[in-house]
Amino acid sequence: MSPEVVSAPVERIADPADPRLADYVGLTDVALRSRSEPEAGLYLAESEKVIRRALDAGHRPRSLLLAERWLEPLAGLVTRVAATGAPVWTGEAAVVEALTGFHVHRGAIAAMHRPPLLPVRDVVAGARRVVVLEDVVDHTNVGAAVRSAAAIGADAVLVTPRCADPLYRRAVRVSMGTVFQVPWTRIAPWPEAVTDLRDAGFVVAALTLTPDAVDLDTLAADPPERLALVLGTEGDGLSAGATARADLAVRIPMAGGVDSLNVAAAAAVALWALR
């Protein structure tokens, strides 16, 4: 089979300081990106698979950036983005790397319009299994937890106001683009909004090591029809406020003198047991 040919208009760039490419400047500056992406109404999708999943979810591209050597291998993606009216930029690998601050080794990166967040009631309507991430600050953990939710079959993910952004570039990449297929939104105020989940018909289970916590096996033996599983931040775990408002506390049985798992691993284990 002959390779696809790019039939869409592509603009070549030579200057990494080109103001039209401001969306892509300094992507390695975590503090800058996590601060500016939500305010600017954009997020970055990296790799062909992730960009395609974003497009499949109905998200609109602002532009696409890729090194010249990826033009033919990603011709279909280039054509699809260009068909939306969004510009496609390409240049030598050194120019793209100077612009973004890292090697775009996954082929392409796209600036995408950030869709508005839906109300919690809309996201959880009809859901049976919901994951709530409380103040999880590591983007890798957020992405991994969302990927587990997608793979194991959770219906929605809710993140608290201080939780890392699921649409941050690293979170999107680690999730393999599943942030676009699992419904998610922010839940606030927190932890007071635990009551809203209960009013919506969910049993709220706090994953924590409190003395009254029941084993995950016990909950899995007779799971509720609708369950919201709340997991806490990496360092301190679940807050006292969220734990106090939950219907019950749950712990994963541990061996080998280990008291707990990484939050993303814990989410995967708990979701598998309660699937």
Shape: elongated
How much helix, percentage-wise, in residues? 25-40%
Radius of gyration: 21 Å
* Topology order in helix (H) and strand (E) letters: EHEHEHEHEHEHEHEHEEHEHEH
Query: Total number of helical segments?
Result: 11
Main sheet summary: 7 strands, parallel
Number of strands: 12
CATH class of the largest domain: Alpha Beta
Second-tier CATH architecture of the largest domain: 3-Layer(aba) Sandwich
What is the average of the pLDDT values? Answer: 89
CATH topology grouping of the largest domain: Alpha/beta knot
Low-confidence stretches: none
Which sequence of strands runs across the widest sheet?
8-7-6-11-9-12-10
Which structural class is indicated by helix and strand composition?
A: alpha/beta
Write structural notes for this entry:
The strands form 2 sheets. Strands 8-7-6-11-9-12-10 form a 7-stranded parallel beta sheet. A 5-stranded mixed beta sheet has the order 1-4-3-5-2. The protein has 11 helices and 12 strands. Helices cover 33% and strands 19% of the residues. The protein has helices at 30-40, 48-56, 75-82, 93-100, 120-124, 139-152, 169-174, 194-199, 216-221, 240-245, 263-273; strands at residues 11-12, 42-46, 61-67, 88-91, 108-113, 129-133, 156-159, 184-186, 203-207, 214-215, 227-231, 248-251. Helix 7 links the parallel strand 7 (156-159) and strand 8. The protein is elongated, with a radius of gyration of 21 Å. It folds into 2 domains: 11-113, 60s Ribosomal Protein L30, Chain: A, CATH 3.30.1330; 120-273, SPOUT methyltransferase, trefoil knot domain (Alpha/beta knot), CATH 3.40.1280.10. The longest helix is centred in the middle third of the chain and has 14 residues, at 139-152. The chain has 275 residues and is an alpha/beta fold.
